[in-house]
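Recall the central idea of this unit: under ordinary conditions, the amino acid sequence of a chain determines the structure it adopts. In this exercise we apply that idea directly, starting from the sequence alone.
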Amino acid sequence: MGRLSNSNTKRKRIQEFGLLRQATVWDKGLTSFIDPYLMYNHPDPVKTPSSPEWSTYTITCPSASVNAASRLLNEYAVSHSHDAYVTFCVQLTEGTEAGSPRVTAMRYAEMIADNYVHALTSWSQSSRPASSPPLRSNSVSSSFLTPSPLAGLRWLGVANILHAGSRDTFKKIFCYKGRDIYSRGIVEIRPDVDFEREGSLQLVEAILNDPFTRGVFKLLRLYREEMESASVRRFLFLSNGYDGRQFSEEPSPLELRLDLIVELARPGK
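Accordingly, the structure predicted from this sequence is:
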């Protein structure tokens, strides 16, 4: 892969696209797939909670009709205590096929950036003394007197993947590593190592064409300055396994749970 280019991209906010954000109630089961990685890989486990603290939200697109319900576009969680962002669901187009009409012009990577900064800024403001001036959350990276919240983002997750194309990516990754996706397990891919191996073209194409992993690379490219030249340390492809092959050769997404975890790294850290 080529080097990421410098970027002074102004971070876009969901309000610019007419979208709405609403806080929701955290369900511990939704983040259980990633929690152990955050707990046992945190750089300072003594000074942080033993388990991650999460804030959960939805992003909706208001309906043009007064009587119609708003359309759910994105449901996600942010852990300010463990520098993590998890996508529960995201649907920004009318369909899943390439070229499907878009529900919003806002892109997945742009939404992650704004969602994460909003959550950390909201938490910081709620934790500051009432007399302190409010924090700004939409500044260009070069104007920050302190590092952008994106500078600390370390973990990204996608829970219970239903997207057919992304599930196909999982099958290719497990097959490439000689693993059985129907058996509970984890496949770890480190781009700096695995992408350089002989015969890795199929692996590289699978990851670069996947909507979620592609979104991660776009996030790193668009916000390189704010994220302090972050790169992907490793992808973790998790299969929850499937025990019903005697009844069905092709399990449904509800029968075979697949989750994705991405760990980021910074130069010199």
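The chain has a mean pLDDT of 86.
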